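We emphasize that the prediction below concerns an isolated chain of 116 residues; any contacts that depend on oligomerization or on bound cofactors are therefore not represented. The input was used exactly as deposited, without trimming of termini.
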Amino acid sequence: FGQGETDLPFHDEIDSVIIQGSYAMEEVEFFHKASKAAIICDIIQRHPEEEWTGFKGMLMRLNGLVGDKGSCPREWRFTFWPFGKEKARKGRDIILSWRAEKMIVAHGTCVEQGAA
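Result of the prediction step, given as a token string:
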């Protein structure tokens, strides 16, 4: 499974990008063309603030993982430093070029409209 492969059985329906640059992981994100939905696996988390309280809630807020914007967990961001940031940005730019209307998030609240 590689980035930009056209011989995948779902290529006509789903685009994909491999987020590279981390010394610890690579992750594949998807875009379903018909529904204009980005499918985000682990790289972004956006949990409802009201579900995270106490000490764990404080840690989640400090990590930027709650609220409408969400974020990549800080410990994962550090795995792109110092040499992988440009590769990661290329993946990000591909995702942004999809101009998704919806975003399905594996960890947190999905976006029904205006995801771009």
